[in-house]
Amino acid sequence: MTIRSVGVIGLGNMGLGMAASLARAGFTVSGHDISAARRLPAEAAGIRFIPDLPALLRAADALVFSLPYARDVEAVVVCAGGLLERRDRKVVVVDTSTSDPTTSRRLAQRLAEAGHALLDAPVSGGPSGAAAGSLTMMIGGAEADLEAARPVLEALAAKVVHVGPSGAGNIAKLVNNLLVAAHLITAGEAMRLSEAAGLPAEAALKVVNAATGRSAVSEVMLPRWVLPGSFDSGFSAGLMRKDIRLAAALAAELGLDLPLAAQVERLWREAHDRIPDAADFTRMADHRQEPKDA
Ligand code: NAD
């Protein structure tokens, strides 16, 4: 079925940019956010703000979620008078939230029973990628549902990877973000070592980025947000902690002992006073700060 209108639920750092990308691609876009304060930025971006969530869930041809936690995704899926009661067409939900794979599978099943579909479609690329429609999207779900949602996915992402069945997109995202969480810590420690030994971080980074120690943290995050001290990537430390917790919970559920991952989880948790949830996540790589609270 043709998709003409898209409803975006969650108009934060990522969702607002996605809504704007969808509108630019020619879709009629409406949005909803639990916070009424998101109405102004949404309208400034040309997005119609719909305070009545069930009305939006019943009207749009396709839906894109960009929500903080799995529990928020669940609340929207089961919202009274919304999707579970809708029968006029099959709606594919593209859930771009980083969420837990078990919840994704369970909600995909519930929606399938109501004649709809949910793709877990977490993203990488940050608010700038969302606004430019150039995200990388990792998708869990059925091939036919991905194909049905393809025009929506193409408006949002430069790269769409079908990882596997329901839940696989979120597994891939948690694996990715566990690495990012660890890399931020090691990059910060490596830059502290360099400066303490008399080599400025900028000079060390030039070498790292031309050698084997490089990563997205060293190539993008340090030069863009850490060394200049701007710390305005648009991804909060709180949401990164959520991703690490989800990765740790997945390891525990599988009975895996991952000693370094456990250490990464502990360091992020204990850094809470120094780097509160509202702070930018790139602060974790700030080599100018003591890594432990005194
Ligand atoms: P954000 O906090 O900026 O935005 C989330 C928005 O959702 C907020 O405006 C909030 O009011 C709204 N919201 C919360 N509960 C809601 C509900 N029940 N119904 C409707 N709206 C609700 O977060 P963000 O940075 O945009 O991240 C969104 C998702 O994308 C998260 O799962 C995050 O982990 C993931 N993500 C973020 C980035 C990034 O760089 N910011 C990158 C990749 C993935």
Secondary structure elements and their pairing?
Elements: E1 5-9, H1 15-24, E2 28-32, H2 39-44, E3 48-49, H3 53-59, E4 62-65, H4 70-77, E5 92-95, H5 101-113, E6 117-120, E7 123-124, H6 126-132, E8 135-140, H7 143-156, E9 157-164, H8 168-196, H9 201-208, H10 216-226, H11 237-253, H12 259-270
Helix pairs in contact: 1-6, 8-10, 8-11, 8-12, 11-12
The protein binds nicotinamide-adenine-dinucleotide (NAD).
Percent helix: 40-55%
Shape by Cα distribution = globular
The helix-strand sequence is EHEHEHEHEHEEHEHEHHHHH
Mean pLDDT: 97
- CATH topology of the largest domain, by name, is Rossmann fold
Tell me which ligands are bound.
nicotinamide-adenine-dinucleotide
Strand content: 5-15%
Radius of gyration, taken over Cα atoms and rounded to an integer in Å: 20 Å
Low-confidence stretches: none
How many structural domains? 2
Euclidean distance between termini CA atoms = 60 Å
Overall CATH class of the largest domain: Alpha Beta
Order of strands across the biggest sheet? 3-2-1-4-5-6
Number of strands: 9
Biggest sheet record: 6 strands, parallel
What's the architecture of the largest domain in CATH terms? 3-Layer(aba) Sandwich
Name the CATH superfamily classification of the largest domain: NAD(P)-binding Rossmann-like Domain
List keywords for this structure.
294 residues, alpha/beta, Rossmann fold, N-(1-d-carboxylethyl)-l-norvaline Dehydrogenase, domain 2, 2 domains, six-stranded parallel beta sheet, three-stranded mixed beta sheet, 12 helices, 9 strands, binds nicotinamide-adenine-dinucleotide
